[in-house]
Amino acid sequence: MDSLAPLELDATLHQPVRTRIVAFLVTRGEATFTELKNELEITDGNLESHIKKLLAEKYMKKQKKTGPTKRSQTIYTLTKKGTDAFENYLETLKQVLTISF
Amino acid sequence: MPNSAAAQIEQIHSMLERGQRSVRLERHTLILWGLIASSLIIFIDLLITPERMPILWHRIVLSNSIIAIVVFVAAIWDFRHTRQAREQRDESVSYIQFQLTKVWWFILTLIVLINLGVNVFGGGYLFYPILIALTGLGFFIHGLFSQQLLVWNGILIVLAGLTAITLRIPFQTMEWFTVFLFGLGLPTMAWLIDLPVVKNNLKQRILISLGWLSMITVPTWFIHYQTNKVVIPDWPVISLQEYQQKTDTGLTDYAVKIPAGTTIPLNVKISSDTLSNSGMTTIPLTLSKAVTVAMNKGKADGRYRIDEGEWLNPRRQFFTRKTRLDATITVQDGVQIDIDFILKVFQ
After folding, report:
1. pTM
2. Are B264 and B115 members of one domain?
3. Residue-by-residue pLDDT tens, chain B, 347 positions
4. Do B109 and B256 fall within a single domain?
5. Is A12 within 8 Å of chain B by CB?
6. With an 8 Å Cβ cutoff, are A93 and B96 in contact?
7. What is the largest CA-CA distance in chain B?
8. Does A28 touch chain B (CB under 8 A)?
9. Which residues of chain A neighbour B16 with C-beta distances below 8 Å?
C-alpha cells in the first residue's frame, strides 16, 4: 500500500454505485431517475443519496423537461467537472493497476 | 487495493457498454413499420393497376404520393408515440436515439426516392433487394446502440438482399419475401428483442436469428414454388408445319414443337431523340434448341419447354442485358452504331 500512497483516488467517485452512475452517463449522455434505478438495480433511497452527493460536488446536474404528454421529467447529465473527474479517476485507477502488477 | 481497482474498472466497462447500448427499439415501432410496409407493397399493386389508370405517369405520381404521405405520417406518429411511451415510463430520449431516428428517416427518404427513380428510369427488379439491404443496414446501425439481436438480424437482412441480387431471384419472389419480412418478421422481432434468453446467450441468439430468417424464407419459398409450379400439359405434340396447316387452330389444346434451326424473325423497334427509324426492323434469328410451346384454345399460354427439359412457367420468361453500345466513325465504314444484347431464356 505504501507504494500507492501518492496516488489519490477521487473520494466521490471511488464508490461503486457512484462510479457506475457516472460511467453510465458518460456514454448515455442523459438519464432519468427511473432509468438509473433500472440500470443499477438499487432502491430509490440509495440512488437518491448518491445522486445528492454527485449534485453537491457539481459532477452532475439536473434539469426539468416537458414533452408531448406535458409530464415533467427530471433529467440528469454530467457536468464538465464530472466528466474531467471521471477521466482523472480512470487514469488513477490504471496507475494503481500498473504499479500493482 | 489492486483487486478493488480491477473490479472498479470492470464495473466501469460494463456500465459504459450499457450506456452505449441503451437505445431501446420500441415494440410499437417494429409492429407499425412492419404492417405499413407490407400493406403498401400488397395494396398499391392491387389498387393502382393499368386497367384502372392506363397512363403510366399517372400511376407513378399516385403510387409515389401515397407511399410518401403514408411514410411521412407514420414517421411523425412513431416519433411522437415513442416520446410519449418513454415519458410514461419516465425514460428519456437520449442524444444517440435522436441521431438514430435521423438515420432511419434518411433511409426511409432514400427508399421513397429509389422507388420513384426505378418507376421513372427503370431497374425495378432491383428495388426489393435494395429496400431489404437498406432496412438491414438500418437495423445493424441501430443494433450497435441497442439490443444485440438487431445487429444479427440486420446482417442477415443485408445478406438476404445481396443474395437476391447475386442469384437473380425473380421479382415476384422478392416481393413476397419483402412482404413476409415486414409483415411477419418485424412484429416477431418486436416480441423477440426483449426476451431474456436473447439478451444473455450468444448461441441461442444465433439460433433464434436463423429461426427468425427461416420463418420469412419458408413461406416465401412455398409461394414461389406454388406460383412457379407448372401443370404439365398432357396434350398431343404437333410440328410447326402441322400447326401452320391447321384450319381449326382454336378447337383443341395441343403443343407445338418448333425444331432447332427454325428461323425466327426478331422485330425491333427503336425510338431515339436524335435518330429516326423508318419503322420496324426485322433481324432473323435461328433457334439453337427445339422449343415446345403449349397452345390453349389456339393461343400460346406461356408454358414452354426447351428440348426435352421440364415444362417452365411463363413468369420466368426472359431477361435482356445490354453489354455494349458504341457509336463509331471510321474512314472505311463511315458512321455506325454497334449494340450488343444478351437475351437469356430461362431453362
Report:
1. 0.77
2. no
3. 556 778 888 889 889 888 888 888 899 999 999 999 999 999 998 999 988 888 989 999 999 999 999 999 999 999 999 988 888 888 888 888 889 999 999 999 999 999 999 998 888 889 999 999 999 999 999 999 988 889 999 999 999 999 998 988 888 899 999 999 999 999 999 999 888 777 667 788 888 999 999 999 999 999 988 887 777 778 889 998 888 888 776 677 889 999 999 999 988 887 788 888 777 788 899 999 999 999 888 888 888 888 888 888 765 556 666 677 888 898 888 888 888 887 777 65
4. no
5. no
6. no
7. 103
8. yes
9. 23-24, 26-27
Record: contact B92-A90, CB cut-off 8 A: no
Residues of B within 8 A of A90 (CB-CB) are 9, 12
Determine the residue among B10, B84, B90 to mutate to test chain A binding: the one whose Cβ has the most chain A Cβ atoms within 10 Å.
B90
Position B332 in a domain? no
DSSP secondary structure letters along B99-112: HHHHHHHHHHHHHH
Q: Are A29 and A76 in contact (CB under 8 A)?
A: no
Strands (E), chain B: 237-239, 254-258, 263-268, 281-286, 291-296, 299-306, 318-330, 334-345
The domain locations on chain A are 16-93
User: Are residues B208 and B169 part of one domain?
Assistant: yes
Domains of chain B: total: 2
**Cell numbers of B307, please?**
428440348
Picking from B196, B228, B260, the residue at the C-terminal end of a domain is B228
Q: How close is the nearest chain B Cα to the Cα of A43, in Å?
A: 16
> Has domain A16-93 been given CATH number 1.10.10.10?
yes
Rounded to 5 degrees, φ, ψ at B140 are -60, -50
Cβ contact, residue pair B9, A93, below 8 Å: yes
Q: Which residue from B87, B92, B95 is facing A69, i.e. has the nearest CB?
A: B87
Tell me: do B43 and B185 sit in the same domain. yes
- Residue B67 in any domain: the answer is yes
How far is B190 from B34, CA to CA, in rounded Å?
10
User: Is residue B31 domain-shared with residue B162, that is, in the same domain?
Assistant: yes
Same-domain status, B73 and B33: yes
Structural domain for B285, as ranges: 237-315
- Run of H or E residues at A74: strand A72-78
On whether residue B77 sits in a domain, the answer given is yes
**Distance of residue A41 Cα from the nearest chain B Cα, in angstroms:** 12
Q: Of A16, A26, A70, which is closest to residue A47 (Cα–Cα)? A: A16
Residues B146 and B22 occupy one common structural domain: yes
Burial bucket for residue B128 (CB in 10 Å: 0-12, 13-18, 19+):
buried
